[in-house]
């Protein structure tokens, strides 16, 4: 996923990578040296292998902390689930480390503790992922544990029952969360019947899960020819590859591969949806539209355009809605791009009495992306923010492994790690304006409101009719 979020901007500002809006407005000393030249992130020295069973393996030795990070990505996430059992892959993935043919959940936890390790498994829209780490001296043991949990989970009945109970409880909590409600409505508006809209567990899909159904789902999805294994750390590539061959070489696909998910449509009719939340003192606004996948040529200029619009402290949304109008403390916009589609999204939570005024401002700001070219300073700040956060984040081993896996899932080569920063620096104001015309036209944006209808209905007459929606 690609997001230049407010949280990321906070980190960047703290480290001096980007100036805040107040600092930008203040006059700068005349004798300051110019910005230094951008430094692209070098392509890591990757030793690449493809095992006879089709598993792709990338090994990246690095000096530094005596630690190893492992990322296993398997194409086949929640978008591959059928409509009757949405997101059941997420439930399956959460149980991978709760017992294998050889080890109990307790024994797995004890092994991780003994090697200074940690482990997490989850499923997103596109993939099933396992992230694990340990002391570099225990790389072989970590790989053996990842292989065991990925290839031989047993889905013990007791653990399945517990996970189902926890998932049902989490669902109840989520259903009362206005942010969750707004995103469910937004996914419905943007993706419609496309499988990307079915990325959340439902009560029916949780209740339908059994150890047998989860085992069947695992056997269908976990396929070596649709998987990438990334290993990063203070390791010897040749030695690690021998271990990989031993642990993963016997992995075999079972049955036919699932059909690939089609690309999500980008030309969809904008919707206006209202999720009633009686008595709410604020309105949660979500405002956006679908976009093309990462491999589309629009990805990089759209990333810059989104950053100008709402990706940092000095963005247009922050300056207008927060600093000038005072409607919201932390408004921002994001760009979420995946293998088969994505979306732009503005997130603005406001008090009830300025809901209509905020929507009017968003419309002006989005229209301005097409009519008001980014100034040289806006463009420079956006590029440096993108580059700074990107370069900083990918110095971390776990983030590097995750980035490489994400690019692979989206059909991008490893070299994209370095060309991303370089190509971002080449984006022009004309390209940003073109993205404004293509992706930020106000009439193309779906609008989701979660709030008290009695408090906000009178403000919506000039905006149009909103359809009630229950996530």
TrEMBL record:
Cited Pfam families: Peptidase_M16, Peptidase_M16_C
Keywords assigned: Signal
Keyword rRNA-binding part of the UniProt annotation: no
Domain spans labelled Peptidase M16 N-terminal: 66-192
Region forming the signal peptide: 1-23
Top-level taxon of origin: Bacteria
Ranges of residues in domain Peptidase M16 C-terminal: 209-384
InterPro entries tied to this protein: Metalloenz_LuxS/M16, MPP/UQCRC_Complex, Pept_M16_N, Peptidase_M16_C
PANTHER family: METALLOPROTEASE, PROCESSING PROTEASE
Protein name: Zn-dependent peptidase
């Amino acid at each position: 996923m690609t997001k230049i979020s407010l949280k990321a901007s906070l980190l960047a500002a703290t480290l001096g990578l980007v100036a805040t809006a107040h600092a930008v407005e203040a006059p700068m000393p005349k004798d300051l040296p110019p910005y230094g030249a951008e430094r692209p992130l070098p392509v890591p020295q990757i030793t690449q292998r493809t095992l006879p069973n089709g598993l792709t393996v990338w090994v990246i030795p690095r000096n530094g902390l005596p630690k190893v990070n492992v990322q296993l990505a398997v194409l086949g996430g929640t978008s591959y689930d059928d409509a009757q059992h949405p997101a059941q892959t997420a439930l399956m993935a959460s149980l991978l480390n709760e017992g294998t043919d050889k080890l109990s959940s307790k024994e797995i936890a004890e092994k991780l503790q003994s090697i200074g390790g940690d482990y997490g498994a989850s499923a997103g829209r596109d993939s099933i992922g396992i992230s694990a780490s340990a002391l570099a001296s225990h790389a072989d043991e970590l790989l053996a544990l990842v292989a065991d949990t990925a290839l031989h989970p047993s889905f013990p009945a007791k653990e399945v029952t517990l996970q189902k109970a926890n998932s049902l409880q989490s669902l109840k909590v989520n259903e009362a969360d206005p942010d969750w409600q707004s995103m469910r409505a937004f996914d419905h508006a943007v993706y419609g019947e496309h499988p990307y809209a079915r990325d959340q567990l439902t009560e029916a899909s949780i209740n339908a899960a059994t150890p047998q159904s989860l085992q069947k789902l695992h056997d269908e999805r976990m396929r070596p020819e649709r998987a990438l294994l990334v290993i990063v750390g203070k390791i010897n590539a040749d030695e690690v590859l021998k271990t990989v061959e031993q642990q993963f070489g016997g992995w075999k696909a079972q049955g036919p591969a699932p059909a690939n998910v089609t690309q999500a449509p980008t030309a969809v009719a904008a919707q206006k949806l209202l999720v009633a939340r009686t008595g709410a003192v604020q309105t949660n606004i979500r405002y956006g539209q679908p976009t093309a996948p990462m491999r589309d040529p629009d990805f990089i200029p759209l990333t810059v355009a989104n950053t100008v619009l709402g990706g940092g402290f000095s963005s247009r949304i922050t300056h207008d809605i927060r600093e000038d109008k005072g409607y919201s403390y932390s408004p921002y916009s994001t760009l979420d791009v995946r293998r088969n589609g994505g979306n732009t999204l503005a997130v603005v939570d406001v008090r009830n009495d300025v809901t209509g005024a905020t929507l009017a401002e968003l419309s002006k700001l989005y229209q301005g992306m097409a009519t008001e070219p980014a100034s040289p300073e806006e463009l420079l700040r956006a590029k440096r923010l993108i580059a700074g956060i990107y370069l900083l984040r990918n110095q971390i081993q776990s983030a590097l492994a995750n980035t490489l896996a994400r690019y692979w899932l989206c059909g991008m080569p490893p070299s994209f790690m370095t060309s991303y920063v370089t190509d971002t620096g080449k984006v022009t104001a004309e390209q940003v304006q073109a993205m404004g015309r293509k992706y930020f036209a106000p009439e193309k944006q779906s609008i989701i409101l979660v709030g008290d209808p009695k408090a906000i209905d009178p403000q919506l007459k000039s905006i149009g009719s909103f359809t009630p929606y229950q996530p």
